[in-house]
Amino acid sequence: MPKRSIRNRYLVERKALSFDRCVESSSKIQQRFLQSDLYRGAMNLVLYSAVHNEVATNAVASHALKERKFLIYPRIKGDELEFVAVQSLSDLSPGVFGILEPRGDTLVPIEQLDLIVVPGVVFDRIGHRLGYGRGYYDRALAACRADCLKVGFAYDSQVIESLPAADHDKALSVLITESRMLKFSA
Questions:
Q1: Architecture of the domain made up of 3-183
Q2: Quick one: CA torsion of 37, 41, 43, 49, rounded to 10 degrees?
Q3: Is the pLDDT of residue 168 over 80?
Q4: Three-state SS across 23-58?
Q5: Residues 30-72: pLDDT tens digits?
Q6: Where are the domains of the chain?
Q7: Of 9, 72, 96, 106, which residue is most buried, by most CB within 10 angstroms?
Q8: Is residue 123 within 8 Å of 171, Cβ to Cβ?
Q9: Rounded distance, CA 110 to CA 13, Å?
Q10: Which helix (H) or strand (E) holds 145?
């Protein structure tokens, strides 16, 4: 099945999830991440701002700020993502596509990132993800250090056996759902 068809199918399915299901499942996913060595070991942590029933990241953000981790959010600049440190969630405001982005100017070079939490529409059991199709995260993941952890957050219903993948598609290190943590060799 072509990527566009897969993407459209899973966007419709995710949009149909109830508010309560998204809140409950997001909470479980975030707690699984917060209790992991992945989180404990990361000092420079990138999160995304959830939209359209994506897995929320707000509990992780609040915890990271309390732990004095260096919290970073992406901002779209042209065809690329730039990464900006935030001191508070109030440092975020609607940007491109209406997604909350950092307003500040404390840019963090991609080479300094320890862990990046990546959104997606659908994921597979070998570490591939399918996003919205513009390639922002694929380009960013390609530029990360080899040891930067690339972590996906997904509902169990967003995980399928396999996705079509091209050479430019970058695999994740880990995928966390409400019921499990899948580790990949990427």
A1: 3-Layer(aba) Sandwich (3.40)
A2: -20
A3: no
A4: HHHHHHHHHHHHCCHHHHHCCEEECCCCCCCCCCCH
A5: 999 999 999 999 999 999 999 999 999 999 999 999 999 999 9
A6: 3-183
A7: 72
A8: no
A9: 33
A10: none
